[in-house]
Each structure stands twice: as structure tokens, then as C-alpha cells.
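Quick one, probably user error.
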């Protein structure tokens, strides 16, 4: 398989210390260089395994392989979105939604406060490891909060993911130990609403 078909770990759009005090340099460095990297490596290894088995005309446990691939590709892609939808607090991060997205949130949820409450509840109640996400239907333009288990369970086909919050313990344990609620509260100081609004406009253009 040509190398350009492999995943690579993207560079962060800010320094490792830039999200402090809400996410520490140590936490962000580990998360990006170890955990995100593991999904890049995992996804590439499975594509290579598939390629080799096809060339060798060998049998694979297709069910297990595809399940594992979905997990790693989901982990790779959701982390990309997560880094892109964060920014240093006060320098693009925090505040209120902007533009078309702000209007759509008000229309769908009644108010930003109501959206924030529902999103926080979704993030708080993920069992074990997973994500809270805001997505938009490319068909109806409805906004929807998703509670994604692992990296790949409960993803809705036809909904584009605009904003995610990683609530795997690996995302917050260094800074917050088991206090997920405190980490979720901190997250709101880092949301890059400008970037999320751009995702919304780009994905929903007809
Ligand atoms: Fe993560």
C-alpha cells in the first residue's frame, strides 16, 4: 500500500501548554503523542494487515478486523476534530457560539444555556469511555447531540460532527483525576466557536 494512504498524526494548531490552566501541558502532550498516536498506528496496521491478507490470499477474521478498524479510525478522526475545536482561553477559546451556528443552536435548543446543559449531561453520563458531540443532519439541518461510546458506537450516518468533547479518562486524568464534571466545566473555556461555526457552514452548504 502506498504511504500516502496511511494516516499520520496531525500537528496541534497550538502549543502543548496553550490550553492551560484548563488542560495542562503534560496532559495534552500525553493525549496527543501517546493516545492519538496509538489510533493512527492502529488504523494503519489494520489497513496493512488487510492488504497483506489480500495479496497472500489468506483468510482473516473479517468481523473482528473490521470492528477494530472502526474503533481506530473513529479514534483517529474524532481526535482531529477535538484539537481543531479547541483554542487557548481568551484567544479564540470560550465565550458564546457565533454566526449561523449560534442561530441554529437557539432554534434547535431554545437557548445556548439549554444546549450547554444537554451537552454537559451527555458528556457526564457516557458510560466508561466515549465522547459527547454536536452534529448536524445534512438532510434536515437539525442539530443533534450524540453520545458516542468508545470512538465508533452510536455514530449517526448522515450527521456531520461539528464539535466533540473527549471524555475518555486519558483526556483528563492527569489534571482532574476522576472528576469528569470539573473537566467538562473547564472545556467550555476552550471551545473555538469560530472554528465550529465554520464547520457548520461548510458542511451544510447545499
Ligand atoms: Fe482521547
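Nope, works fine. Designed sequence:
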Amino acid at each position: 500500500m502506498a504511504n500516502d494512504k496511511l494516516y499520520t498524526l496531525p500537528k496541534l494548531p497550538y502549543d502543548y501548554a496553550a490550553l492551560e490552566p484548563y488542560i495542562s501541558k503534560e496532559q495534552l502532550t500525553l493525549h496527543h503523542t501517546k493516545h492519538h498516536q496509538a489510533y493512527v498506528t492502529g488504523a494503519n496496521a489494520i489497513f496493512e494487515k488487510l492488504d497483506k491478507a489480500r495479496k497472500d490470499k489468506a483468510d482473516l477474521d473479517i468481523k473482528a478486523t473490521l470492528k477494530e478498524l472502526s474503533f481506530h479510525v473513529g479514534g483517529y478522526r474524532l481526535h482531529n476534530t477535538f484539537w481543531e475545536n479547541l483554542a487557548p482561553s481568551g484567544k479564540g477559546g470560550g465565550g458564546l457560539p457565533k454566526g449561523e451556528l449560534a442561530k441554529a443552536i437557539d432554534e434547535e435548543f431554545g437557548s445556548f444555556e439549554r444546549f450547554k446543559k444537554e451537552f454537559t449531561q451527555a458528556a457526564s453520563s457516557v458510560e466508561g469511555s466515549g465522547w459527547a458531540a454536536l452534529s448536524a443532519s445534512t438532510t434536515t439541518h437539525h442539530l443533534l447531540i450524540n453520545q458516542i461510546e468508545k470512538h465508533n458506537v452510536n455514530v449517526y450516518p448522515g450527521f456531520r460532527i461539528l464539535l466533540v468533547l473527549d471524555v475518555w479518562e486519558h483526556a483528563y486524568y492527569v489534571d482532574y483525576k476522576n472528576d469528569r464534571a470539573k473537566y467538562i466545566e473547564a472545556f467550555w473555556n476552550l471551545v473555538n466557536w469560530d472554528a465550529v461555526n465554520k464547520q457548520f457552514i461548510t458542511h451544510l452548504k447545499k
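The chain has seven helices and three strands.
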